[in-house]
Amino acid sequence: MKHSASAFGFAFEASLDVLSSIIVVWRYNNAAAVHSAQREYVACVVLGSLFVLSSICIIGKASHDLVTRLLPEVDDFLFSVSIVSGLSCLILAVFKCMLARVLTSRALMTDAFNSLVGGAMGFSILVSAEVYRHYPDVWYLDGTIGVLIGLIILAYGIKLLVDMVPRVRQTRNYERFE
Fold first, then answer.
1. What is the band of 85 on the pLDDT scale with cuts at 50, 70, 90?
2. Measured between alpha carbons, how far is residue 121 from residues 25, 69, 70, 108 in Å?
3. Mean pLDDT in residue range 152-163
4. CB-based contacts of 31: which residues, under 8 Å, 6+ apart?
5. What pLDDT is recorded for position 51?
6. For residues 74 and 1, is the Cβ–Cβ distance under 8 A?
7. What percent of the chain has pLDDT over 70?
8. How far apart are CA 54 and CA 141, in angstroms?
9. Which residues have a Cβ under 8 Å from the Cβ of 156 and sit 6 or more positions away?
């Protein structure tokens, strides 16, 4: 779907998912890091910052599409990519969530949330494209979904920053940061 706020959000979310996974790998990159509260909090602050930045881009693109009344163009190839990617993201989210519970890791749980949002974005492309195909008067659904998901990511990112920035400051002097 060309000119789609949901497709843009999905692509941006996929990039964010890769970055968040890299941050989680950094967080657990050696045996000493497994028990490091400092690394956990720093990873969460970086993830929260990335969430805020990506949400601003997603909301900006979706708002622009709504204001300029940009109509989405349906592409069948995107349907198959959305289904495969949406299902893959949801499966990844479940496994990351289970692992985060075992490790009691907020950073990994945040990565799971990011994958869940990626799955939702993938399926939102399908929903908005199908609705637009049958009801062209509802052209604004794609942009509206993009804004809504962007706001969810923004809220989660701000909550993460509010929770974790004080913890980074508290643990800064207690652990040696590598």
1. confident
2. 24, 20, 19, 20
3. 96
4. none
5. 92
6. yes
7. 88
8. 20
9. 48, 51, 110, 113
Asked whether residue 54 is assigned to any structural domain, the reply reads: yes
As a whole number of angstroms, the distance between CA 100 and CA 34 comes to: 12
DSSP class of residue 131?
Answer: H
pTM: 0.83
The predicted pLDDT at position 74 comes to 62
Classify the phi-psi angles of 144: left when phi > 0, otherwise alpha if psi is within -120 to 50, otherwise beta: alpha
How far separated are the first and last CA of the chain, in Å rounded? 44
> Does a structural domain hold residue 73?
yes
Range of the domain at 65: 5-29+36-170
Tokens found for residue 167? 């913890």
Q: How many domains does the chain have?
A: 1
Q: Give a yes or no: residue 176 inside a domain.
A: no
Cα gap 104→139, rounded to integer Å: 42
Dist. CA 163–CA 178, nearest whole Å: 22
- Our measurement of the distance from residue 143's CA atom to the centroid of its chain's CA atoms, rounded to an integer in Å, reads 17
In a domain, 175, yes or no: no
Q: Render pLDDT for 110-157 as a digit per residue (tens, 0 to 9).
A: 999 999 998 888 888 888 888 888 898 988 998 899 899 999 999 999
